[in-house]
Amino acid sequence: SGLPMRNADLPAPKLSFEFFPPRTEALEQQLWACIKRLEPLAPRFVSVTYGAGGSTQARTHAIVSRIARETGLVPAAHLTCVGATRVDVDAVARRYWEAGIRHIVALRGDPPPGSAYEPHPGGYPYAVDLVAGLKMVADFEISVAAYPEVHPAASSPMADLENLKRKLDAGATRAITQYFFETSTYLRFLDLCLAAGITAPIVPGIMPVSNFAQAVKFSDMCGASVPAWMGRLFEGTDDDPETRRMVGMVIAAEQVRLLQANGVDEFHFYTLNRPDLTYAIAHVLGVRARVAA
Ligand code: FAD
């Protein structure tokens, strides 16, 4: 028993890749190299995040528009409603529509570290309100966030699940999950979604880890738990980046293959603007580069 060595009989899964707007010229070069490297894998879409509090508005817009102009990829723009008026958010959305961007990943966003979230008086209070507002601006395709380990500020797991259902009912067509390392957590969450009457795809967010210490810090902030077995696998690799990367590759490859064996055929990768692990994991999933004709 165990996993088949190859999932050769399965159709190749549908992929999407997430990037973030870099802060420097050098990192911007790295981003475009990453996009170019992943482009032949023909993902369904690639998404570009929106910095905390909307801080990267201009950069997100510039990158998304350039992807639309200069690549064969379909871009999606992340958009948050924290700290902004409805008028401002609608204006950003309208500019996307005018630039030919048809897909928005609609999020609430987070308050500055240390403070509790408060809706902007003239803004969209929560992501569900943002989804409804975006649909009034134009007929965008909309993705929303889901939390297999429950959003840290949710009053209860059930309330969080109902919030997800409301976001989908308001016009979103898919949810992308926060990353998780325990595959059973996601599979249980899928069951809960089905039981709650959610029929939209709940696409697992995959975070290939090559810097464990950084991943631990980041996971703490976003409420993703890091299992003890993962710490043991990375043990002693702090000064050995090459081994660390290979360990990260093994962990992520096992995770996606287990998901695939459980019928999951869509994956969203948090690339962190680095293509190599994502490329290799996609390969393991059966995705091959398409050569341009
Ligand atoms: P919501 O769906 O609005 O939920 C937020 C919280 O409020 C939940 O706990 C929910 O249960 C609760 N809630 C909902 N409605 C109510 C209500 N009426 N009263 C009380 N509580 C309520 N952040 C960025 O800044 N930029 C990005 O580009 C970005 N991209 C992301 C992509 C993905 C796939 C994911 C999973 C997250 C992303 N985030 C991003 C992080 C996100 O902004 C935070 O996780 C944020 O805290 C919640 O956003 P949300 O859209 O899930 O919010």
From TrEMBL:
Its cofactor is FAD. Belongs to the methylenetetrahydrofolate reductase family. It comes from Rhodopila globiformis. Its EC number is 1.5.1.54. The keyword NAD applies. Pathway: Amino-acid biosynthesis; L-methionine biosynthesis via de novo pathway; One-carbon metabolism; tetrahydrofolate interconversion. GO terms for cellular component: cytosol. Keywords: Amino-acid biosynthesis, FAD, Flavoprotein, Methionine biosynthesis, NAD, Oxidoreductase. This is Methylenetetrahydrofolate reductase. InterPro entries: FAD-linked_oxidoreductase-like (IPR029041), Mehydrof_redctse-like (IPR003171), MTHF_reductase_bac (IPR004620). GO terms for molecular function: FAD binding; methylenetetrahydrofolate reductase (NADH) activity. It comes from the Bacteria. One of its GO terms (biological process) is methionine biosynthetic process. The keyword NAD applies. It catalyses: (6S)-5-methyl-5,6,7,8-tetrahydrofolate + NAD(+) = (6R)-5,10-methylene-5,6,7,8-tetrahydrofolate + NADH + H(+).
